[in-house]
Amino acid sequence: MAEKKEKVPRQPMPEQDPKVRARNFEEVPFGYTPETAMLEASRCIQCKNPGCRQGCPVGIDIPGFIKEIAAGNFAAGIAKIKETNALPAVCGRVCPQEVQCEAKCIVGKKGDPVAIGRLERFLADWERKEGEVKIPETKPATGKKVAVVGSGPSGLTVAGDLILNGHDVTVFEAFHKPGGVLLYGIPEFRLPKEILFAEIHYLERLGVKFQCNQVVGAIVSLEELFEEGFDAIYVAVGAGLPYFLGIPGENLIGVYSANEYLTRSNLMKAYLFPEYDTPIVVGKNVTVIGAGNVAMDSARTAMRLGAETVRIVYRRSREEMPARGEEIHHAEEEGIELFLLTAPLGFSGTDEGRLTTMHCKKMELGEPDASGRRRPVPIEGSEFDLDCDLAVISVGAGANPLLTSTTPALELNKRGYIVADPATGKTTMKGVWAGGDIVTGMATVIQAMGAGRAAANSMEDYLKLGW
Amino acid sequence: MFKILSRRELAQGTVVENVIEAPQIAKKAKPGQFVILRVNETGERIPLTMANTDPAKGTITLIYQVVGKTTALMKTLQVGDALLDIAGPLGKPTHVDNIGTVVCIGGGTGVAVLHPITRGFKQAGNKVVGIIGARNKELLIMEKEMTQASDILEVCTDDGSCGYHGFGTDLLKKRLESEKVDLVVGIGPVPMMKFVCSVTKQYNVPTLVSLNAIMVDGTGMCGCCRVSVGGETKFACVDGPEFDGHQVDFDGLSQRLAGYMAEEKESMDRFRNSCSCKG
Ligand SMILES: Cc1cc2nc3c(=O)[nH]c(=O)nc-3n(C[C@H](O)[C@H](O)[C@H](O)COP(=O)(O)OP(=O)(O)OC[C@H]3O[C@@H](n4cnc5c(N)ncnc54)[C@H](O)[C@@H]3O)c2cc1C
Ligand SMILES: Cc1cc2nc3c(=O)[nH]c(=O)nc-3n(C[C@H](O)[C@H](O)[C@H](O)COP(=O)(O)OP(=O)(O)OC[C@H]3O[C@@H](n4cnc5c(N)ncnc54)[C@H](O)[C@@H]3O)c2cc1C
Ligand code: SF4
Ligand code: SF4
Ligand code: FES
After folding, report:
1. What are the residues facing A129 on neighbouring strands?
2. In a 3-state reduction of DSSP, which class is residue B62?
3. Which of A20, A182, A341, B182 has its CA 20 to 30 Å from the CA of residue A323?
4. For ligand 2, is residue B14 a contact (CB within 6 Å)?
């Protein structure tokens, strides 16, 4: 066995100790060093027909950028990624790689896949810290004006693409700061806001104008934007309508929607109260209902705010949990308990209306339902109570009607989402495109960006050639 | 940045009126709508109703009672200072129609919110009776404006220092006894609105109230402002802020409004201390 080259294992990314990090808001993983990144990059076998690329919703030239890392050409590597992905520091952190690029990695067939997400993150961080963020030349001004409504990843992608083509781009955002879910949903310990601000600043330097505090539909309608001289509009307002459970006691103090809980903590920085003015209920015993990324973020936030116990209550089993594997793993490491096959029945509280108890019932898995997953059915007589003074409901979100209800020309589907051509993002209203969560329902950052890229291409054709 | 163009203290400095430069909002706003503002980078987002708008001058008027940290901080702002963020107009405008006789009853700072609505009903051709009250004469606000906005204005104080000695609801009751009233609009502290509704219910007169639930985004995104109306959960920011008062669960609203009392006190104490340090 003398000559056989020793196989390099998938390189781990150093992380904060779970005990320590469970009480702070700093980012969990530290990222690769250049040496580790080059070592990890050496694991890529540079496939002729790379599976990884098909797994990435925006088709990044993955072998291309990994080759540059292996050779130590970090500037060339990041340039390669930025041909197709404007937010690599974000995607490297929050993409569900285990079901996307890394799921299709050839090396992963026999062992662990190449850590594509970590490498992408490495290059983006390297550029932000060491390199010089290059401002590409924009094409000569076309005199065309584009409005982007909503500043989440989908809107930012369209803004970034169209500004390079020489159009005059304005992004309208309802909140007082741009970023969408990246700002108000995903917490600091998973996506440091400094990264987001750097990306926004980059777009500003390219010439994108951001107009915050603009609730489109209330302060201005889409028709009025056209009257003001905009030639095309991209609508990416996200899935901003919280679902509640419709069970008794849901209006008690201490019961939050995940949207409210995370917005208070992330956007309003309630975790820094009283330095920041916005308060938040700090729970001692916390339950989080639901098991997606949003639920993990809420549970881990509650832990960091000082909870003694944090429980995730989910009515199906572990296999059905929709959150990224890494988030579940991190949550469990931080001491968050999973109450699987458990359904909430109601809440009760004190005379002053403060939550004290959540009533639950045990479930078992029955026949498969419409979604192909085995339907949870209640077990008779299995009711039990959990002490809790904070409950965060994160069972999904719907389509917020604020904009769409004031824009009759936009066709909606039964659930209130905007109908748009999946290939181009074109809506039923002339000059209006839509994409991201307001079209698909809550999906992923990279899918929202993919929709933005497709729409930007179609909008470019329109601005040149017409509808 | 939204510049403060004028500043006036009312009710012995417990209430402040600011005229603010916000041309885009001034152009769009209708009676009954509100804005959400943030004073500075560390500030909370708070909702305030537009007591007046001037599309020609590009201004909105906010009248607020100083109750906690944010409103106390706003009180310290002078003409020429600016608020960091204002988003609006938010909420559904008041549905103003010519329906006959309308009684508009306001308590405390609620009168500021009531004023544009009262004016709207009068302009629509209704007979408008205004009833405004406060604890005493000094705390009474907008008497002059309300006189202009109504056909008849009745004033009351808890201590009898001005107008009728007693509660506005007594005057309301008398009015409902003596003539046919088609609509009552009641705006003020939650206990007052609850009381108004219990009176109008006896006389079977439809009643509109404006709910001051705690809010974060004001666009229907977070659910913080939820109130139970007719047994259904509604979001005050987008479904309201005005609702059929006979359907509102006022006790639930009161409880939710008290949800952050300890934190509000902590914020306020910190603010007071930091002020006195500076002298
Ligand atoms: C807590 C949480 C964690 C998540 N974790 C992950 C993850 O780990 N990985 C992943 O891939 N995905 C994750 N997601 C999903 C992902 O964030 C979304 O799919 C993605 O952000 C959708 O992008 P978008 O641009 O369509 O909308 P959003 O990001 O929702 O942005 C929409 C923007 O539009 C603004 N807006 C709304 N209405 C108006 C209006 N009328 N006028 C002007 N502006 C308006 C909103 O304020 C917001 O800023 C997570 C989502 C949440 C909530
Ligand atoms: C649609 C709407 C319109 C309003 N219009 C007016 C107005 O025209 N004039 C006026 O004086 N007040 C108005 N209010 C109430 C005003 O928003 C609160 O008084 C203000 O937020 C208090 O902030 P604070 O920091 O000074 O006090 P805090 O110390 O935060 O709170 C003191 C009191 O204000 C309530 N409150 C706290 N935070 C909020 C919040 N984010 N939203 C609503 N209430 C809160 C609390 O229940 C508490 O009773 C309105 C409220 C709503 C919802
Ligand atoms: S954008 Fe996401 S899916 Fe595509 S390569 Fe990067 S991490 Fe993988
Ligand atoms: S599939 Fe895996 S090994 Fe092949 S090119 Fe992509 S990352 Fe490299
Ligand atoms: S304030 Fe968030 S939904 Fe009304």
Report:
1. none
2. strand
3. A20
4. no
Q: Kindly state if the Cβ of A157 falls inside 6 Å of ligand 3.
A: no
Q: Kindly indicate whether the ipTM for this predicted assembly is greater than 0.90, answering yes or no.
A: yes
Number of the ligand closest to the Cα of B259:
2
pLDDT given for residue A36 in this prediction: 96
pLDDT digits (tens, 9 = 90+) for B197-211: 999 999 999 999 999
Cβ neighbours for A169, distance < 8 A, ≥ 6 positions apart: A145, A146, A148, A159, A162, A163, A207, A208, A209
What 8-state DSSP symbol labels residue A141?
P
pLDDT at A352: 93
> Tokens for B174?
């008398």
CA pair distance B188, A442, nearest whole angstrom: 40
Q: How far is ligand 3, taken at its centre, from the CA of residue A57, in Å?
A: 7
pLDDT band at B108 (very low <50, low <70, confident <90, very high): confident
Q: What is the residue type of A342?
A: T
> What are the helix (H) ranges across A16-98?
18-21, 34-41, 51-55, 62-70, 74-82, 88-94
CB contact under 8 A, A219 and B89: yes
Rounded distance between C-alpha atoms, residue A184 and residue A178, angstroms:
9
- Convert the pLDDT of each residue in A127-181 to its tens digit: 988 877 778 888 999 999 999 999 999 999 999 999 999 999 999 999 999 999 9
pTM to 2 decimal places: 0.94
Minimal-distance CA residue of chain A relative to B226 = A251
Tell me the two tokens of residue A285: 């015993």
Q: B167 vs A467, which has greater pLDDT?
A: B167
CA-nearest residue for atom 7, ligand 3, is A117
Give yes or no for a contact between B224 and B189, defined as CB atoms under 8 angstroms apart: no
Give CA torsion, residues A444, A447, A449, A453, to 10 deg: -170
β-strands A145-149, A232-235 pairing: parallel
Owner of token pair 């949003």:
A294
pLDDT at A238: 95
